Amino acid sequence: MEFKDYYKILGVDRKADQKAINQAFRKLARQHHPDVNPGNKQAEARFKEINEAHQVLGDPDRRAKYDQVLELREHGGGWEDLLRRGATQSDDGTYTVYGSPGDLGQFSEFFEQLFGGFATGPQGAGTRGGRRGFSGFS
Protein backbone atom coordinates (compact mmCIF):
# COMPACT_ATOMS: atom_id res chain seq x y z
CA MET A 1 0.00 0.00 0.00
CA GLU A 2 1.45 3.34 -1.06
CA PHE A 3 1.67 5.94 1.69
CA LYS A 4 0.05 9.28 0.86
CA ASP A 5 0.80 12.52 2.67
CA TYR A 6 -2.68 13.99 2.91
CA TYR A 7 -1.39 17.25 4.34
CA LYS A 8 0.83 17.72 1.31
CA ILE A 9 -2.01 16.77 -1.06
CA LEU A 10 -4.19 19.54 0.42
CA GLY A 11 -1.25 21.92 0.78
CA VAL A 12 -1.80 22.53 4.49
CA ASP A 13 0.41 22.39 7.55
CA ARG A 14 -0.02 19.52 10.00
CA LYS A 15 -1.14 21.98 12.64
CA ALA A 16 -3.87 23.38 10.36
CA ASP A 17 -7.29 23.68 11.94
CA GLN A 18 -10.45 22.23 10.40
CA LYS A 19 -11.36 25.56 8.82
CA ALA A 20 -8.04 25.74 6.93
CA ILE A 21 -8.35 22.10 5.84
CA ASN A 22 -11.89 22.67 4.55
CA GLN A 23 -10.88 25.86 2.73
CA ALA A 24 -7.94 24.12 1.04
CA PHE A 25 -10.18 21.22 0.06
CA ARG A 26 -12.86 23.45 -1.46
CA LYS A 27 -10.31 25.47 -3.43
CA LEU A 28 -8.56 22.40 -4.84
CA ALA A 29 -11.81 20.52 -5.48
CA ARG A 30 -13.17 23.43 -7.56
CA GLN A 31 -9.89 23.65 -9.47
CA HIS A 32 -9.69 19.93 -10.30
CA HIS A 33 -13.38 19.01 -10.50
CA PRO A 34 -14.19 16.80 -13.52
CA ASP A 35 -16.96 19.19 -14.61
CA VAL A 36 -14.40 22.00 -14.86
CA ASN A 37 -11.91 19.71 -16.64
CA PRO A 38 -13.99 17.40 -18.87
CA GLY A 39 -11.99 14.53 -20.31
CA ASN A 40 -8.86 15.41 -18.31
CA LYS A 41 -7.87 12.14 -16.63
CA GLN A 42 -5.09 13.81 -14.61
CA ALA A 43 -7.52 16.32 -13.13
CA GLU A 44 -9.95 13.50 -12.36
CA ALA A 45 -7.23 11.49 -10.58
CA ARG A 46 -6.15 14.57 -8.64
CA PHE A 47 -9.77 15.29 -7.67
CA LYS A 48 -10.11 11.75 -6.27
CA GLU A 49 -6.86 12.15 -4.35
CA ILE A 50 -8.05 15.48 -2.90
CA ASN A 51 -11.35 13.89 -1.83
CA GLU A 52 -9.52 10.99 -0.18
CA ALA A 53 -7.29 13.40 1.74
CA HIS A 54 -10.29 15.41 2.89
CA GLN A 55 -12.19 12.29 4.00
CA VAL A 56 -9.32 11.55 6.39
CA LEU A 57 -8.24 15.02 7.50
CA GLY A 58 -11.78 16.40 7.61
CA ASP A 59 -12.85 13.83 10.21
CA PRO A 60 -11.25 14.41 13.65
CA ASP A 61 -11.14 10.70 14.56
CA ARG A 62 -9.65 9.60 11.25
CA ARG A 63 -7.21 12.49 11.34
CA ALA A 64 -5.99 11.49 14.81
CA LYS A 65 -5.39 7.93 13.63
CA TYR A 66 -3.65 9.15 10.49
CA ASP A 67 -1.43 11.39 12.61
CA GLN A 68 -0.46 8.34 14.68
CA VAL A 69 0.66 6.55 11.53
CA LEU A 70 2.64 9.60 10.44
CA GLU A 71 4.36 9.68 13.81
CA LEU A 72 5.18 6.00 13.55
CA ARG A 73 6.57 6.40 10.02
CA GLU A 74 8.72 9.39 10.90
CA HIS A 75 10.35 7.84 13.91
CA GLY A 76 11.13 4.56 12.22
CA GLY A 77 8.81 3.20 14.52
CA GLY A 78 7.36 0.21 14.96
CA TRP A 79 8.26 -2.53 12.60
CA GLU A 80 11.43 -3.45 14.46
CA ASP A 81 9.52 -3.32 17.73
CA LEU A 82 6.72 -5.35 16.19
CA LEU A 83 9.21 -8.02 15.14
CA ARG A 84 10.67 -8.18 18.65
CA ARG A 85 7.16 -8.75 20.02
CA GLY A 86 6.66 -11.93 18.06
CA ALA A 87 6.41 -11.63 14.30
CA THR A 88 7.91 -13.93 11.74
CA GLN A 89 8.77 -13.24 8.12
CA SER A 90 7.90 -15.84 5.51
CA ASP A 91 9.73 -16.61 2.28
CA ASP A 92 7.34 -14.43 0.29
CA GLY A 93 8.26 -11.35 2.35
CA THR A 94 5.07 -11.09 4.39
CA TYR A 95 5.03 -10.94 8.17
CA THR A 96 2.83 -12.86 10.55
CA VAL A 97 2.36 -11.15 13.89
CA TYR A 98 1.45 -13.38 16.83
CA GLY A 99 -0.13 -12.28 20.06
CA SER A 100 -3.24 -10.39 20.95
CA PRO A 101 -4.22 -7.04 19.43
CA GLY A 102 -3.44 -5.42 22.79
CA ASP A 103 0.20 -6.41 22.36
CA LEU A 104 0.45 -3.71 19.70
CA GLY A 105 0.06 -1.02 22.34
CA GLN A 106 -1.39 2.31 21.29
CA PHE A 107 -1.73 1.18 17.68
CA SER A 108 -3.85 -1.89 18.39
CA GLU A 109 -7.13 -0.01 17.95
CA PHE A 110 -5.85 1.66 14.79
CA PHE A 111 -4.81 -1.65 13.23
CA GLU A 112 -8.04 -3.28 14.40
CA GLN A 113 -10.06 -0.65 12.54
CA LEU A 114 -7.73 -0.40 9.57
CA PHE A 115 -7.59 -4.13 8.90
CA GLY A 116 -10.96 -5.09 10.35
CA GLY A 117 -9.52 -7.21 13.14
CA PHE A 118 -6.90 -9.88 13.26
CA ALA A 119 -7.14 -13.22 11.52
CA THR A 120 -6.97 -16.23 13.77
CA GLY A 121 -3.65 -18.01 13.52
CA PRO A 122 -3.21 -21.77 13.61
CA GLN A 123 -2.47 -21.82 17.35
CA GLY A 124 -5.58 -19.89 18.32
CA ALA A 125 -8.28 -21.51 16.22
CA GLY A 126 -10.62 -18.88 17.63
CA THR A 127 -10.32 -19.92 21.27
CA ARG A 128 -9.81 -17.49 24.10
CA GLY A 129 -6.20 -17.33 25.24
CA GLY A 130 -4.83 -18.73 22.00
CA ARG A 131 -2.28 -16.92 19.92
CA ARG A 132 -3.71 -14.92 17.07
CA GLY A 133 -1.90 -13.72 13.99
CA PHE A 134 -2.25 -11.28 11.14
CA SER A 135 -0.43 -12.05 7.95
CA GLY A 136 -0.03 -9.43 5.30
CA PHE A 137 2.73 -6.94 6.06
CA SER A 138 5.33 -6.89 3.34
UniProtKB/TrEMBL annotation:
- Where in this chain does the record put each J domain? 5-70
The record's PROSITE patterns line, in alphabetical order, gives: DNAJ_1, DNAJ_2
Q: Which organism is it from?
A: Candidatus Segetimicrobium genomatis
Would you indicate the residue range of the signal peptide? none
Q: Does the keyword Chaperone apply?
A: yes
Tell me what this protein is called.
J domain-containing protein
Q: Does the keyword Chaperone apply?
A: yes
**Keyword set for this entry?**
Chaperone
Q: Which Gene3D superfamilies would you find in this protein's record? A: DnaJ domain
A Pfam family for this UniProt protein? DnaJ
